[in-house]
Amino acid sequence: MRFFKRAYIRYVLHRYAIKHEIWEAVTSKLVLLVGLTAVEKAHLRELSTLLLHGKRIFGVQGLLLTEEMRVLVAATACLPILHLGISLFAEWTDIVVYPSVFRVSRDETDAAGVVHHEERVLSGESWGRGPVIVAWDEVERDSVQGLPGHNVIIHEIAHKLDMLNGTANGMPPLHVTMPIPEWSTTLSAAYEELNRRLNHHHPTCVNPYAATSPAEFFAVFSEYFFCAPDILHGHFHGVYRQLCLYYRQDPFLRLSAA
Ligand SMILES: [Zn+2]
């Protein structure tokens, strides 16, 4: 079975490889990829090819995606799994791209069992086995030089990884070499400290949205990890080290060396 799977992957990579000109045009402008080695970039291109071939990436509300736009979405989505593998994306099939922020309305049940009707405006959303949903204007802004530590695709992919072992709770399935107590003690302490600072109206160097739940903490800190690693490395070093172990990447080191 494995042999056939490997053979199929080789076939897809050969038959559907992202065209060199398109790959270069898109990735040369992507600040997120600064410092990746040539080997890592080549591997990212392979993962992006597999993603584009295996998933549907499409626009809604009249948004037509060009090949360049789809490659940009795929390359960004694959950065977190660069050293984890495409198999972590096996349980879902669609990336839906809205032209801009989108409105959702749904019923939510609170801890007391009371159902509230909520209307919210979102720039991204992830469902367990459902689609990743993002707003194109946010994706475009993040790809050049958006807000420090902001990337809607990385955020939603982090939720997807978190949900691989059930509901999103801020702890994706860890590698066997990573002690769970270390992850949970380190991230809990940082989460509580962040909430303490916000409750006392003290300034923080990260997006306060990280303090809304452990799941959002992991997603927002994953954004900083890839987009502004210096902030995490300097102010949340323990969390930074845990994320290095999980993602098997060291963006601070590669940016420092670039
Ligand atoms: Zn989120």
From TrEMBL:
Fetch the InterPro entries from UniProt.
Answer: MetalloPept_cat_dom_sf, MtfA_fam, MtfA_N
A GO molecular function annotation here is: metallopeptidase activity
A Pfam family annotated for this chain is Peptidase_M90
Q: Which domain of life is it from?
A: Bacteria
Q: What is one cellular component GO term in this UniProt entry?
A: cytosol
Q: What is this protein called?
A: Protein MtfA
Organism encoding this protein: Methylovulum psychrotolerans
What is the taxonomic lineage of the source species?
Bacteria, Pseudomonadati, Pseudomonadota, Gammaproteobacteria, Methylococcales
Tell me the gene name: mtfA
